[in-house]
Amino acid sequence: MHSDGRxxxxxxxxxxxxxxxxxxAEEEIIHPVARRLPGGDGIVDDRLAEEREAKELxxxxxxxxxxxxxxxKSIDRLRMDVLSHARAEERYEFDRxxxxxxxxxxxxxxxxxxxxxxxxPTHPHPGVESATKNMLAxxxxxxxxxxxxxxxxxxxxx
Length: 158
Prior knowledge:
Blueprint: H1 3-35, H2 40-62, H3 69-100, H4 103-118, H5 131-157
């Protein structure tokens, strides 16, 4: 694998890690709070559907070689999906949370999100989108993911 391919692989692995951690924290902390708002179930269900699609695409991409022409096409689709999802989160979920909760409560949610991120899986796990499933499967998946990451890193550096 030449330098560009290695850089693309490293960048993709970092993206997978960041997205998996971000979505797990949202699923464990933000979505349950948002469900308590009027109309919150529909808002969260829509976000979960978007997240499920992104996790499935990430999982598919994670198994591809980053030099594969299909990878570039799929990563562009993922980029568009993630941007659309982020806009929907801001508009429909986060703005409503900001309107309904005090700055102190929001700071508490932010601290809880940071704690959830510290122990979240580092790879997507489609089908584990609920807070309960994340709490049950998340720690085991996180350990398995982190071991897999260490093995990959050691192999790639060796």
